[in-house]
Amino acid sequence: MTVLWAERALLPGGWAENVRVRLSAAGRIADVIAGAAPEGERVGLLLPAMANLHSHAFQRAMAGLSEAKGPEPRDTFWTWRQIMYRFLDHLTPEDVEVIAALVQMEMLEAGYATNVEFHYLHHRPGGAVYDNIGEMSARIAAAAARTGIGLTLLPVHYQFGGCDGRALGPGQARLGTTPEAFARLVEAAEAAIAGLPDAGIGIAPHSLRAVSPEALAFCAGLRPGRPMHMHLAEQVPEIEEVRAAYGLRPVEWVLETLRPDARWTFIHLTHMTEDETRRLAQTGAVAGLCPITESSLGDGIFNGTQWAEAGGRLGFGSDSNIRISLTEELRTLEYSQRLRDRARAIYATRASSTGRVIYEAGLAGGAAAAGRETGAIAPGLWADLCAVDLANPVMEGRAGDTLLDSLIFAGHDGLVRDVWAAGRHVVRDGQHMDRARIIGDYRACIRRLQERL
Ligand code: ZN
Asked: 95, 198, 299, 319: which one is catalytic?
């Protein structure tokens, strides 16, 4: 049995000192005692490690390739997407596995313990199905076996090129599924993760642009009780397209037709009216926020203050993986609200500071979105833990909530010293245990890709 002892820890009841945490051989938290004498492995600040609730791993390899002026007068999400489609056409299953391993390693080193992978790259270039329809899913699972990250794999259903049911466009051939093929893909994805003891599955209809209302109902019936994820209301042209097709804005349509509940995570939710914000928050659905990517793509600013006032749940994802940094995701959300409202400490309450509120919100929302027993340092949950360096100067003299505030607003990912995912001690002294080989494989992969691009 692994024994950890932390100078300070964030427990479900609040801050505690001299905390002993014992981990079972199966990777669960066995017991937690505050005020304990030092024993076992000593750490500074012990936090529950968050789930990263939204990622498209392969996009990490094109980070930095879309920042120049393109041929269009104005560079937008849609011109970025053209670059992304051109890029994904060159990826082999081996490439996807190597890139996913790098992404998962970087997530772990940033303090995440779980990768919720919104996985839509399924087929060969041109759209032919691999001998195993779950070939690409198996590559994501193989990366997780290598890095030790907790995995929730979300096979994605992507059927149409738009709300009017038009055929998939060029660049989308590798994504396309019929509902029947998607059901087989889900089974293959389940087989792919069968060897990972703490991994789980979820279902992801891509968006209202890519999935018909009938197929959406079909998806919701495939694995009752497992998480459902969908992109929603990210871009203004998407709002207009859905309104033209269905007579309602995307969130309105979802509220009227889908009747979502706490099983659902909606990614982005950037463009909502006040009424949509309040009503959707009250369903218990999680807002899957990706503040770095939303900034990178110029999406807009999430209606965060009203979502919080209505009791809405939220979590954090790294989406395009242009940069993988948990502290920066949290900081960017809060700062986006401050810039819009010209105010400070937007998420703070009378009881808890800004950093504490958004970190705990991300823990709870991430656990729900991942469908994983995690999100707190409490007996019975998976031992998803993150140890932060208290010796760093920005932490000097800090206690209670200011520990999290200093980590998020004044610190950086380098303060993350150790990470356990389901009890697997995969990051030590700030570095993943297999770092050198994962980076070596990634460099070779990028060199091969450059020859093909
Ligand atoms: Zn996404």
From this structure: 319
For residue 81, what are the contacts with CB-CB under 8 A and spacing of at least 6?
none
Given a contact cutoff of 8 angstroms between Cβ atoms, the answer to whether 188 and 131 are in contact is: no
Q: How far is the CA of 119 from the centre of ligand 1 (A)?
A: 9
Known active-site residue 319: yes
pLDDT digits (tens, 9 = 90+) for 90-123: 999 999 999 999 999 999 999 999 999 999 999 9
Res 425 pLDDT > 90: yes
> pLDDT, tens digit, for every residue of 137-190?
999 999 999 999 999 999 999 999 999 999 999 889 999 999 999 999 999 999
Q: Of the listed 54, 56, 229, 268, which one is catalytic?
A: 268
The Cα 374–Cα 52 span in angstroms is 12
Taking the C-alpha atoms of residue 324 and residue 88, their distance in angstroms, rounded to an integer, is: 20
Tens of pLDDT, residue by residue over 363-422, are 999 999 999 999 999 999 999 999 999 999 999 999 999 999 999 999 999 999 999 999
Q: How far apart are CA 38 and CA 53, in angstroms?
A: 34
Residue 231 Cα to ligand 1 midpoint, Å, equals 6
Please, are residues 34 and 292 in contact by the beta-carbon 8 Å criterion? no
The structural domains of the chain, with segments of one domain joined by +, span 2-47+378-437, 50-370
Q: Does the annotation mark 299 as catalytic?
A: no
E strands along 290-374, which residues? Answer: 313-316
Whole-number Å distance, alpha carbon 55 to ligand 1 midpoint, is 6
What pLDDT is stored for residue 86 in this prediction? Answer: 85
CATH number of 2-47+378-437: 2.30.40.10
Span from the CA of 19 to the centroid of ligand 1 (angstroms)? 38
In this predicted model, what pLDDT tens digit does every residue of 233-260 receive, in sequence order?
999 999 999 999 999 999 999 999 999 9
Compute, in angstroms, the gap from residue 246 CA to the centroid of ligand 1.
Answer: 23
CATH class given for the domain over 50-370: alpha beta
Handedness of CA 407, 410, 416, 422 (dihedral sign): positive
